[in-house]
């Protein structure tokens, strides 16, 4: 029985080692919910993401090309995640409350080496124009 103890210890370590290494190799989960601030000082708040990946929120831009007073604007979007531990891709639309334009964003949520969550996005803004002849200057 004394000889079995070292064998059982080695066996249990051999079984536990792959489990521990698997836990370390999973990427940290990035959560969209919360308040985000970009490099220009614009901020957005994303409410809870439902089981379908849909979310609502608000966007308060720090910059505008219109002469209108900046107001908080509603946003709605969705995220795609293949599993709980992935770094989610997402998209959302902001319907500006103070101008005749809409902006769509698409991006991905990352967790950097220090554990900080970062959103990387691209955006496209569409402004209202009066005729199809002016379409070229609307986007």
Automatic annotation (TrEMBL):
Q: Which GO terms describe its molecular function?
A: biotin binding
Question: Which PROSITE patterns does the record associate with it?
Answer: AVIDIN_2 (PS51326)
| One CC-aspect GO term | extracellular region
Disulfide bond entries: 30-109
Q: Where in the cell is it found?
A: Secreted
- What keyword terms does UniProt attach to this protein? Biotin, Disulfide bond, Glycoprotein, Secreted, Signal
Protein name (record): Avidin
Identify the species of origin: Eolophus roseicapilla (Galah cockatoo)
Record gene name: Avd_3
């Amino acid at each position: 029985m004394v000889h079995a103890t070292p064998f059982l210890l080695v066996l249990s370590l051999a079984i536990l080692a792959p489990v521990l290494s698997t836990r370390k190799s999973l990427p940290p989960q990035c959560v969209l919910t919360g308040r985000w601030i970009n490099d220009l000082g614009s901020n957005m708040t994303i409410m809870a993401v439902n089981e379908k990946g849909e979310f609502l929120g608000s966007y308060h831009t720090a910059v505008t090309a219109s002469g209108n007073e900046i107001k908080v604007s509603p946003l709605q979007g969705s995220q795609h995640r293949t599993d709980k531990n992935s770094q989610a891709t997402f998209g959302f639309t902001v319907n500006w409350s103070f101008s005749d334009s809409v902006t769509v964003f698409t991006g991905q949520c990352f967790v950097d080496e220090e554990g900080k969550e970062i959103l990387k996005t691209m955006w496209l803004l569409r402004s209202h124009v009066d005729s199809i002849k002016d379409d070229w200057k609307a986007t």
